[in-house]
Amino acid sequence: MLVGNRAKYLGIVVGLTFASLLITQQSAIFVGLMTRTFGFLTDTALPDIWVMDPKVQYIDDLKPLKETESLRVRSVQGVAWAVPLYKGLLKARLPNGTFQTCNVIGLDDETLIGGPPRMLQGQMADLRRSDAVIVDVVGARGKLASILPDGRRVPMKIGDTMELNDHRAVVVGICQVQRTFQSQPVVYTTFSRATTFSPRERKQMSFVLVKAKPGQDLQTLCRRIRKETGLAAYTRDEFKKITISYYRKYTGIPINFGTTVVLGFIVGIAIAGQTFYNFTLDNLRYFGTLKAMGASDFMLLRMILLQATMVGGIGYGLGVGAASAFGLLSGHTELSFRLPWQLLAFSAIAIMLICAISAALSMWKVIRLEPAVVFKS
Amino acid sequence: MRKYLLPVLSVFGIGFAILTVLTGSKSLPPSQPVVDPGEPPFRSSVAGAGIVEANTENIAIGTIIPGVVSEIHVSVGSRVNAHDPLFKIDDRDLKAQHVIRQTALRVAKANVRVEKAQLDDVKDQLVKAEILSQKKVISADELDRRRYAVQIARARFDRARAEVASVRAQVKETETNLDRVIVRAPCDGKVLQSKIHIGEFAPAGVTQTPLMLFGSTEPLNVRVDVDENDAWRVYPDATAVAFLRGNRNIKTPLKFVRFEPYVIPKKSLTGDSTERVDTRVLQVIYSFERHDLPIFTGQQMDVFIEAPDRATPPGATPQAVGEKTQEAR
């Protein structure tokens, strides 16, 4: 049996492990990257519907609206509330003089809807103080941290000030948010303050966040908002999809990762298939003997399939285990790693395919085998 | 034993992967609003942003006579009756002028008396001269001169009296000015803002920040901006409710007062003078009783005005819509 030949057994398991690791890990990073593109949407889970300019293609594609549009959206039947949201990139000048572009989010002054999902220090209501901003913890420890002359990094903390577009801003809280695609520090503040920070523009409001009244069908409400205001309205999931499809269409990321996944697949087939086939060839005599002894083709096929399933299972388990370990290790770095269950199923199917193809080659050989081959050599 | 190593490791690997999936799929709960945003109280409504103001509108008090403020009779928030003094511009120069002009009046009056005496004197002389002339003691020429002297004296007397009237008018002018330096309340109301202090110069004319903001605050008015695109849906007799920003429980029903007949460009927060405006808003004025509600002038309120569906054809009144729905039932 296959297990008896240690070199071949190890070879095939390593090959499958490698293929499984490559497929799972690369796909997980790809999924992680794609999740980051709509990280802000994941964070802002309270509103049901996002209203924006009809030409907006993805979440960071900012085409501001007139401020009165939020009143118009609020007037649509079935809308429980509609609040404005500012989103923009502003230059921050840090105390040590360096510049850093920040993702500034302006929340509705009154309700502060759209805030970060988790506050690590301070409170959301502290945004009511003058010049107050809340920064995200990754930004505070990383790009916004000040570097002392001896090279030590001092994270930004509550009470620190920075300049946002020449306006004073005081940090009143540290929050935790999903990392964004561009990995810029995220700065939360109120809408009116964000508009004073931002360069003068005629239109300032990026989005209107809408909550539907209970029992409203979101799709119908979206259509009604579109019809009555002429703006685009998407549910959160729709907007996520639109964002992802933009990145899929206009960046090379999917092709890049897709190539690696396909390579992993091919390598898996090459190693596993070739080793498996070799192994079958080596043991062809025994298969012949079994056949001569009256074993049916079906039985031989089951023998091969059992072995293929076994090595496939072992390789798959080791591969996804290694990929998860990689994810755990890279959890605190800039690398994005996200493993949904669909991905586990996907790599399982891929490994199954590899095994099936390898087994099919061997099975083909065994079925066409003449029992007389035993006596030939 | 060794032959089980790989399968066991593999089972562990799958278990670990499943654990990763489970921990990774957890998502953080959404952040809750700090203040409940509140729902519109009507099935179909028009939303507007309102600002609370006095029912007389906020009156920016100005002064006719520029000068340094010398007295302030009211403090911020005090209730004032119509024509009560609010503040006073320094009037020392006017007082001095008053004294000068009063003295001038006395001089003029004395002058009248002098002229009167002179007139009497020449009159008397004329009478005597006429007698003498009849007795042919003095010549006709002499008599004529006396006669003219009387005419001159009478004219001078008239002039002196006119001068008195003129000086009296001047005194009156100073007195009016002395009254004008006192700025008075135009109506019953409340001092909403006072930006002037004793010793500060109050210029005449329109100032960027009014010297004093004044208005009658019972009842209060709320000025609601409605986007011009929604303006057609607002009817005067529709019910309207205003919610205070920051606490949705503080709300008040509104009573329609009037439409501002002219649709104006929306005031922007940025206040940039070069800003282009492309939104115009219809302003609707509503009034409400303040009672014990902590609502102040100048505060923003969210206003919902009940409105018909967009499906309703324009021009149909809400009553007609009501009748239609009743018929449908």
Short structural summary:
Chain A has 377 residues and is α+β, with helices and mostly antiparallel strands.
Mean pLDDT of chain A: 85
Q: Sketch the major β-sheet of chain A.
A: 6 strands, mixed, barrel
Derived from helix and strand composition plus strand pairing, the structural class of chain A reads: alpha+beta
Helix content of chain A: 40-55%
**How do the helices and strands follow one another from N- to C-terminus of chain B?**
HEEEEEHHEEEEEEEEEEH
Could you give the count of β-strands of chain B?
15
**Unreliable stretches covering 5 or more consecutive residues of chain A:** none
Shape of chain B: rod-shaped
Report, as a whole number of angstroms, the end-to-end distance of chain B: 82 Å
- The neighbouring-strand order within the major sheet of chain B is 1-10-14-12-11-15
**How much is the radius of gyration of chain A in Å?**
29 Å
Helix percentage range of chain B: 25-40%
Oligomeric state, counting identical vs distinct chains: heterodimer
Radius of gyration of chain B: 41 Å
Number of domains of chain A: 2
Low-confidence runs of at least 5 consecutive residues of chain B: 269-274, 317-329
Summarize the largest interface: chains and residue counts.
A-B, 67 and 59 residues
Q: Helical element count of chain A? A: 12
- The assigned structural class of chain B equals alpha+beta
